Structure formats: structure tokens, C-alpha cells
């Protein structure tokens, strides 16, 4: 059996309620978001097969992982926080907390060894600035990291990565269903399962492909987008992201002035 990567978008956070709340720094889950985690925990039927829990270091993804995969946590597995899986925008809601604060809040439940000072820096010279080439590179790096983890664990590896609606499209390289206004085609706590396209592990991009059962569960007999269609939607998404980033930078400059 080939390793499986289960990708999950976080549960509803307070920033999802309205546009004004996007100014909240690293917001928590709403009560509905907590219930969404409980529901995912109940409907997911492979807790006993999960070998690793990974999440973006942003608080809502960490809590989604801890709550949605509680049986795995209770078995003794820690959630490993992966900075490359953080969300793409420079809005306050998408900028994470300092490592010391995360350590104080999550204690031994979360492994923060990859979360170093500066991981939440999204300035123009940062690795995490939302430029197209930087988003593509850190998404590739995240896939390669996951592949290395799966290789060490063996063919029975089943890895959960809880992350965000925007970066999920870059990680999967799949733009099917994306809504430009929402910035994603993923619902809160939606789970999709993937395998690596190249089973030999030689693909430098470590590209993923959705498993047939996962695709059929959510899309039935629908035909996937063509490569040209994928590129067109990605370009439209990036154009919208560039526009939003420029607005945020102008707003920041106005405050400084």
C-alpha cells in the first residue's frame, strides 16, 4: 500500500465570520468550529491507522488537528507544527503567534522544533511573502518534507496535514472548485486524501494526486480540469491575491505615515 496523505482545511475560526474579523491576530475557533472538529472526529474511520499528525503552526489549525484527531493524540502522538503549511495572506488573521506563546499555550501536545523565530514574518524579503514563486517553492518544500516523512515510516504511512484553504491549492496543485471571493474551494474541516504521483520518490516536485475514493466521494463521476484550465484558474487566483496584498501594503504604509 502506498503512503496516504490526508489533507484537511481547519474548522471555522472567528475570522471566517466577517471581513472585519480578518484583522484579528491568529484567531481561535468559533463554537461552530469546535463542533465541526467533533463531527470530523466521529466520521473519520482511520484514527488507528494514522502514523503522523502535522499542522500549520497557526492556532486554528493546531486546535483543529488536536480536536479532530483526538484518538490519535490520546494514543501518544504529538502534532508537529510545519511553518511551510501556514496560510498565504498577510492579513493579521493569517500571521501566526510567536514560538514562545505557542509553547506556553500548547505545551507538550505540539512539537514546535520547526517553528523558529521569524516563521511569522511575511515581509517582502521573507520566505513567506505571498509572491507566486515563493508560494510554489514552499508548497513544494512541504510536499518533499511529507514524502521524506512517509518514506521513513514505510508503505503503511498515513499522514494528516491540517492547513488552510488558500495554501491547499498550492500544495495540491489543484484549482478545481476554487472560489475567488472566498479564496478557496475547500470547506471548513473538509478532508481529501492523496498519494504521491511518482511512487519511486524521484519526482523533484513530490506532486500529489487525489485518491480515486476521495475524488468519487466528493465529485462522483466528474471529469478533472485540464492542465490549461488549471493554469487559467491559478492565474486568476494569483491576480486576486496580488491585488489584496497590494491593498494591505498601502494600508500599512498609510498607518506608518
Task: Characterise the protein shown here.
Helix 1 crosses helix 2 and helix 5 crosses helix 6. The protein is an alpha/beta fold and 257 residues long. It is 40% helix and 12% strand. The termini are far apart. A 7-stranded mixed β-sheet has the order 4-3-2-5-1-6-7. The protein is globular and about 50 Å long. The protein has helices at residues 31-43, 59-68, 70-74, 99-106, 132-153, 165-172, 212-219, 227-256; strands at 4-9, 52-55, 79-81, 110-111, 158-163, 191-196, 208-210. The protein is built from 8 helices and 7 strands; from the N terminus they run E-H-E-H-H-E-H-E-H-E-H-E-E-H-H.
Question: In short, what is this structure?
Answer:
By secondary structure, the chain is α/β, with parallel strands linked by helices.
List the helices and strands and how they pair.
Elements: E1 4-9, H1 31-43, E2 52-55, H2 59-68, H3 70-74, E3 79-81, H4 99-106, E4 110-111, H5 132-153, E5 158-163, H6 165-172, E6 191-196, E7 208-210, H7 212-219, H8 227-256
Radius of gyration: 18 Å
Shape category: globular
Number of helical regions: 8
If strands are numbered along the chain, what order do they take across the biggest sheet?
Answer: 4-3-2-5-1-6-7
Number of strands: 7
**Structural class, from helix and strand content?**
alpha/beta
Topology order in helix (H) and strand (E) letters: EHEHHEHEHEHEEHH
Q: Give the termini separation.
A: 58 Å
Mean pLDDT across residues: 95
Query: What share of residues are in beta strands?
Result: 5-15%
Low-pLDDT segments, ≥5 res: none
Q: Report the helical percentage.
A: 40-55%
Largest sheet: 7 strands, mixed
